[in-house]
Design a protein that fits this description.
It contains one helix and nine strands; from the N terminus they run H-E-E-E-E-E-E-E-E-E. The chain has a single domain, classed as Jelly Rolls. It is mostly beta strands and about 110 residues long. About 15% of the residues lie in helices and about 55% in strands. The strands form two sheets. Strands 1-2-9-4-7 form a five-stranded antiparallel β-sheet. A four-stranded antiparallel β-sheet has the order 3-8-5-6, with no helix packed on it. Strand 1 and strand 2 form a beta hairpin.
């Protein structure tokens, strides 16, 4: 068993994102290439965009801090701290409307 403080990890990732030229930082907190389930903590400074990309499987975005917008198929959803967004099974992008950290959970299709 392993326990992690998402609050502390989020704080560290946001600091790393602020220091990075790209304005983003990410860390896998569970899973990886060898597992079907993968959880990644993603930090984006305000205005940064994860450009359009395909959904590799079932996915959710849980906003831990800040505010993000997910755009897909002509629709958009805004998530605030505490919100959970189900990622549609199509090409999508994520924009940080303010300094933000979210937990991306993906279950890859076999």
């Amino acid at each position: 068993m392993r326990k992690s403080s998402l609050t502390a990890l989020a704080r560290n990732e946001l600091r790393a994102a602020a220091a990075a030229n790209s304005g983003r930082s990410a860390q896998t907190v569970y899973g990886g290439h060898e597992r079907l389930l993968r959880q990644t903590l993603v930090a984006l400074v305000e205005g940064q965009v994860m450009s359009d990309h395909e959904n590799p499987g079932e996915a959710t975005v849980q906003v831990l801090q800040g505010r993000v917008r997910l755009d897909a198929g002509g629709e958009s959803w805004t998530g605030w701290t505490g919100d959970l967004i189900v990622v549609p099974d199509e090409s999508h992008s994520v924009t940080a409307l303010e300094d933000s950290v979210f937990l991306l959970t993906v279950v890859k299709h076999r």
